[in-house]
């Protein structure tokens, strides 16, 4: 999905950087083969996400808002529903390792993660 001047969706690289900043609130963040790895308080949360998934999610969010008469806005560059969904998975993590993946419009804990 290419970006142009009339496209309200930021380029994928900008969204990728914003998601990294979002994750960085809780610990050390590095890119991984699956997307992102967040290391915090002796734990690791692996986030399965691609640049294209992120940009598609943001595009759908902005399109939905515009279609419902709402301003096409983002909070700190990301859809609030996306960050809330991540928090719902990340917040209760007690295991030393967990993996979450974007499935449709929500992050979900990957059940078979070691």
Nutshell version of this structure?
This protein has three helices and five strands. It has 114 residues and is α+β, with helices and mostly antiparallel strands.
- Number of structurally distinct domains: 1
Order of helices and strands: HEEEHHEE
Which stretches of 5+ consecutive residues score pLDDT under 50? Answer: none
Strand proportion, as a percent range, falls in 15-25%
Largest sheet geometry:
5 strands, mixed
Distance between the termini: 34 Å
Number of strands: 5
Alpha plus pi helix count = 3
Q: Which helices and strands appear, and what pairs or packs with what?
A:
Layout: H1 12-23, E1 28-32, E2 35-40, E3 43-48, H2 51-67, H3 80-90, E4 97-103, E5 106-109
Parallel strand pairs: 3-4
Antiparallel strand pairs: 1-2, 2-3, 4-5
Helix pairs in contact: 1-2
Keywords:
five-stranded mixed beta sheet, elongated, 25% strand
Write a structural description.
The model has no long low-confidence stretch (mean pLDDT 90). This protein has one domain (12-109). The radius of gyration is 14 Å and the shape is elongated. It has 114 residues and is α+β, with helices and mostly antiparallel strands. The chain starts with 11 loop residues before the first helix and ends in a 5-residue tail after the last strand. The relative contact order is 0.17. It has helices at residues 12-23, 51-67, 80-90, and strands at 28-32, 35-40, 43-48, 97-103, 106-109. It has a five-stranded mixed β-sheet with strand order 1-2-3-4-5, covered by helices on one side. It has three helices and five strands; from the N terminus they run αβββααββ.
């Amino acid at each position: 999905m290419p970006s142009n001047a009339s496209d309200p969706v930021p380029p994928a690289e900008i969204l990728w950087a914003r998601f990294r900043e979002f994750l960085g609130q809780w610990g050390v963040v590095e890119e991984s083969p699956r997307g992102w790895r967040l290391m915090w308080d002796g734990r690791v949360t692996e986030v399965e996400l691609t640049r294209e998934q992120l940009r598609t999610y943001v595009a759908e969010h902005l399109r939905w808002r515009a279609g419902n008469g709402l301003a096409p806005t983002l909070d700190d560059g990301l859809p609030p529903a996306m960050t809330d969904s991540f928090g719902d998975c990340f917040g209760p993590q007690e295991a030393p390792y967990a993996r979450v993946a974007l499935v449709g419009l929500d992050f979900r804990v990957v059940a078979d993660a070691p």
